[in-house]
């Protein structure tokens, strides 16, 4: 964790050197909260290393318990709308910002760029973010809220693309079944949209082009994001739950390159 923190600080310091200094938002991961010890430690480290930097830790509720529950049960697009409004109402963020997302928060900050309007987006850092989704039940940690994680696992096992589950479970909305790609593309309410699996969205593409730097951090021993290649936009090959492919070799990449959807 110490080495990762050092790399994050180096990335942000380099960004502030190459461009004007911008404030930073941090979006936590599954089962965590914006006021969690690890998140606040990161915020403090940024402020110590880059003095007078405004840092905002994202929360979706004033209640600690609800903030944690929202990481499982508040639909992702609702979270994005809420955070987008929060940012627009904060005058400290009106002239642009850097973004850091941890675990599923890494996916959310990337989607936030695509769905929200910002005057300027500096560096976007995704730390273990499942950019291509997951196809594996996340490991639960006994942190006092393990019952929420176990319920999430039970619902995913029952059927991620069942309408009720897809509409109410965050992790189902970035569940990506390589054995049923057609089903995923038809019923996914979030991931298939932001990855433009079904139709071209030039607005998404243009907003992605406005990011000054996109930094994707992959954990080589990750047991939460399955497959871990998703953290670099890789995933399982179509029809396989064992063989993986890189972003550059994926059908997604070649299709988007051909139609100029997202990557440039």
Q: What do you see in this structure?
A:
There is one protein chain. The chain has one domain: Rossmann fold (3-Layer(aba) Sandwich). It is 43% helix and 12% strand. This is Palmitoyl-protein thioesterase 1. One of its GO terms (cellular component) is lysosome. Keywords: Disulfide bond, Glycoprotein, Hydrolase, Signal. It holds the Pfam family Palm_thioest.
Task: Give a topology summary.
Layout: H1 2-18, E1 24-27, H2 37-49, E2 55-57, H3 64-73, H4 76-89, E3 97-102, H5 104-115, E4 121-127, H6 146-159, H7 163-168, H8 181-187, H9 191-194, H10 202-209, E5 211-217, E6 235-236, E7 244-245, H11 251-259
Parallel strand pairs: 1-2, 1-3, 3-4, 4-5
Antiparallel strand pairs: 6-7
Provide tags for this entry.
disordered C terminus, alpha/beta, 7 strands, Rossmann fold, 264 residues, 43% helix, 11 helices
Number of strands: 7
In terms of DSSP E residues, the strand content is 5-15%
pLDDT average, as an integer?
Answer: 89
Which term fits the overall shape?
globular
Sheet with the most strands?
5 strands, parallel
> What is the CATH topology assignment?
Rossmann fold
Spans of at least 5 consecutive residues with low confidence? 259-264
- Given helix and strand content, the structural type is alpha/beta
CATH homologous superfamily title? Alpha/Beta hydrolase fold, catalytic domain
The total of helices stands at 11
Distance between the termini: 32 Å
Percentage of residues assigned to helices = 40-55%
Order of helices and strands: HEHEHHEHEHHHHHEEEH
Strand order of the largest sheet: 2-1-3-4-5
Examine the secondary-structure arrangement and name the CATH architecture: 3-Layer(aba) Sandwich
Any idea how many domains? Answer: 1
Instruction: Give the C-level CATH assignment.
Output: Alpha Beta
GO molecular function: palmitoyl-(protein) hydrolase activity
EC number: 3.1.2.22
Pfam families: Palm_thioest (PF02089)
InterPro entries: AB_hydrolase_fold (IPR029058), Palm_thioest (IPR002472)
